């Protein structure tokens, strides 16, 4: 019994993270397999990313950031992406998300306008939830540590944070879940057509 305790604790932590992440999904109870196998969920998150990007663009007189946000460069070569292992993809996305979470947190401390601050708060929660979620998927021993150095760029426009997040969800994250679905889902349950990369 004692030997099973750490494993049980790990499973409970994983369930808590996933429950928190998908709490607002209305249809039934969520699970890691459902997130991967139900393509409607990733489309929902893409839609939410587009909605946040649109709303922040409508905020009046957003100030330039005095301390620039350090953002990941999330554009990628689809051919090179397909050649990477699932673990390499996961770690790359984790690095991108870690930068985005830090950028959103830093910008929130500089933006006092309610419209911009509200949208930054939502983006922070979404990006941090994905960050926690992807740490529950692992193909190599040992916990993930943010010791990577992804390609990055400094931006002073708040809207750039939302553009980067939307491109990450619509690009790397969408393809990552699509590829996982091929291995984890029952025939006809998930996968479907490959996501369209480059859509605006």
List the helices and strands and how they pair.
Elements: H1 5-21, H2 32-37, H3 39-57, E1 69-72, H4 78-82, H5 86-108, H6 114-134, E2 152-155, H7 158-184
Antiparallel strand pairs: 1-2
Helix pairs in contact: 1-6, 3-6, 3-7, 5-6, 5-7
Question: Could you walk me through the main structural features you see in this protein, from its secondary elements to its overall organization?
Answer:
- The chain has a two-stranded antiparallel sheet with strand order 1-2.
- The protein is mostly helical and 200 residues long.
- Helix 3 runs antiparallel to helix 7.
- Helix content is 59%, strand content 4%.
- It is built from 7 helices and 2 strands, in the order αααβαααβα.
- It is globular and about 50 Å long.
Distance between the termini: 52 Å
Q: Using the CA coordinates, give the radius of gyration.
A: 17 Å
The whole-number mean of residue pLDDT values reads 78
Helicity range of the residues?
Answer: 55-70%
Number of E strands:
2
Work out the helix count.
Answer: 7
The quaternary structure here is single chain
How many strands, which pairing sense, and closed or not: the largest β-sheet? 2 strands, antiparallel
Would you tell me the structural class of the helices and strands? Answer: mainly alpha
H-E order = HHHEHHHEH
Strand order of the largest sheet: 1-2
Low-pLDDT runs: 20-30
What is this entry, summarized?
The chain is mainly alpha-helical and about 200 residues long. The chain contains 7 helices and 2 strands, in the order H-H-H-E-H-H-H-E-H.
């Amino acid at each position: 019994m004692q030997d099973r305790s750490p494993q049980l604790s790990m499973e409970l932590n994983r369930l808590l993270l996933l429950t928190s992440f998908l709490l607002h999904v209305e249809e039934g109870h969520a699970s890691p397999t459902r997130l991967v196998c139900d393509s409607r969920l990733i489309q929902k998150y893409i839609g939410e990313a587009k909605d946040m990007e649109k709303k922040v663009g409508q905020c009046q007189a957003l100030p330039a950031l005095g301390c620039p946000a350090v953002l990941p460069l999330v554009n990628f070569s689809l051919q090179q992406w397909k050649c990477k292992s699932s673990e390499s993809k996961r770690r790359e996305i984790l690095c991108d998300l870690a930068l985005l979470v830090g950028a959103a947190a830093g910008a929130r401390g500089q933006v006092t306008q309610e419209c911009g601050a509200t949208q930054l708060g939502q983006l922070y929660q979404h990006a941090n939830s994905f960050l926690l979620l992807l740490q529950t998927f692992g193909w190599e021993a040992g916990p993930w540590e943010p010791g990577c150095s992804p390609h990055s760029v400094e931006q002073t426009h708040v809207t750039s944070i939302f553009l980067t997040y939307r491109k990450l969800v619509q690009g790397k994250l969408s393809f990552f879940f699509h590829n996982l679905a091929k291995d984890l889902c029952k025939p006809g349950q998930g996968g479907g057509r490959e996501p369209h990369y480059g859509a605006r």
